[in-house]
Amino acid sequence: MVKDYDVLVAGAGPAGSAAACVLAGRGFRVGLVDRAAYPRPKLCGGLLTAKSMEALRRIFGLSEADLAARGGLFHQTPDYVFLHRGRELLRGAAAEPFRFIDRPAFDALLASAALARGAELLPGREVASCDPERGVLTLGDGTRLSASFVIGADGANSATRRALNIDREAWKAGLAAAIEVELPVGRGPGEFPRAVRTPELHVGAPDVPAAGYGWVFPGPRGPKVGICGLRRNEARQGRDFAEIFRGYLRLLGVQGAEGVPLRGHPLPYGNALARPCLGRLLLAGDAAGFVEPLFGEGIFYSMATGAHAATAVCRALEQGADAAAQYEGLLARTVRPEFLWSDRLRWVLFAALQRFGALPIKGFVKSAPAALAQMVHGGRSFRLLASKRWEWGDELEPKRPG
Ligand SMILES: Cc1cc2nc3c(=O)[nH]c(=O)nc-3n(C[C@H](O)[C@H](O)[C@H](O)COP(=O)(O)OP(=O)(O)OC[C@H]3O[C@@H](n4cnc5c(N)ncnc54)[C@H](O)[C@@H]3O)c2cc1C
Predict the structure, then answer these.
(1) Residue 50 needs a FRET pair 20 to 30 A away by CA distance; which of 64, 303, 359, 374 works?
(2) Measured in angstroms, how far is the CA atom of residue 354 from the centroid of ligand 1?
(3) Ligand 1: residues within 6 Å at CB?
(4) 283-332 pLDDT per residue, tens
(5) How far apart are CA 379 and CA 401, in angstroms?
(6) Residues ≥6 apart with Cβ < 8 Å to 277
């Protein structure tokens, strides 16, 4: 049977666009299906680490200048602040800057890079289900599209993930609720009382989740205020997440917090799937839970796992390799060890915070601030701060015509 595409990619976020960009660059016919039309809204703090900049260069061929011109880059700073119960714990500066992007523009740039390599974007098309054995996506209007491989990159509420026989309770237990709002600066109701140029991380306040944290980031139109926390913890304590968030806004000095319209989105938070493949289907990004378990960084890991899934599919199509085994191998050498150690670190830190307050965290961060900042940026591993270089396959290089 003639397939409609060599590879279908469900979802054109960072994971899907990364996969489509790599595969189209190798000359494969790629259909990139998204239920939204681009640019589309996306709830996100928009913080990019240095390793994300490297991923953008390697996967998409995009530079910082491209981000500034078309990818929504609006601010960068090496500075950061940690706060405990609303009080400043420590202030530092990393060797490299944290960059802040507006997600709609950023995601549109990544999708356009995949199109420039030859992928076909199918916007406004919702995936209803996936048949992993046949490599078929059925869309909401009943259309069936077929391919040799399907990459499921359709985010935390993934429709393609339903084809996998996963432990749904374990998945839910590792989901964090996340709420984020962007507020204008001002003294009135629903306004943020000060301008924000330095990213802030908040821990330990009664209105910051126990297994999670709060943030205040520079935003393109005003400060972005958010929290995330494991749902199971808050639900166990009978706490309503929206109320927790409103309490957090009050702690930060926002008047009229009860009237602020809230927006939330689930965040995989330590529930990366052990087996993200079945038949012709490989899951990447949030769809497979590939978000780093301590800080909740997802943009880098979605681009990285999208590229890894594409590399695995390239090896299957070009050399007859087993795509799932290739993908698992790449994940085992890159993402998995980082997540294992960041997860360990988070439970140690959260437990210390609950038992002893902020002092151990202050001591921990002050003991090696430069190395810890490098750990966040990617130059060092979560595994005992060993020096780290990310592994990328040769397949990221586009094939030259002829
Ligand atoms: C509040 C919040 C703040 C965050 N802040 C940061 C941050 O500052 N830095 C960071 O690195 N990470 C952050 N993250 C995590 C980050 O946003 C995600 O990890 C990242 O967007 C995952 O990329 P993705 O491509 O896997 O999925 P997504 O970006 O969610 O893209 C999925 C795409 O699939 C499409 N789709 C979904 N369902 C279907 C369907 N059925 N059919 C067709 N298309 C479909 C969607 O329209 C979407 O375009 C944050 C997350 C949240 C919730």
Answers:
(1) 359
(2) 30
(3) 10-16, 33-36, 40, 42-47, 126-127, 153-155, 159, 178, 180, 226, 265, 267, 285-287, 291, 296-300, 302
(4) 999 999 999 999 999 999 999 999 999 999 999 999 999 999 999 999 99
(5) 35
(6) 283, 323, 324, 327, 328
Residue 320's region, left for phi above 0, alpha for psi from -120 to 50, else beta, is left
Two tokens, residue 96: 């490299």
Please tell me whether residues 33 and 159 are part of one structural domain. yes
DSSP 3-state helix, strand, coil percentages of the chain (rounded to 5)?
A: 40, 25, 35
d(CA 1, CA 46): 43
At 184 the pLDDT is 98
**Domain count across the chain:** 2
For residue 302, give its domain range: 5-74+103-169+273-396
Query: Within a 10 A sphere around the Cβ of 331, how many other Cβ atoms?
Result: 24
> For ligand 1, atom 41, which residue shows the shortest CA distance?
127
For the stretch 234-267, pLDDT in tens is: 665 667 889 989 999 999 999 999 999 999 999 9
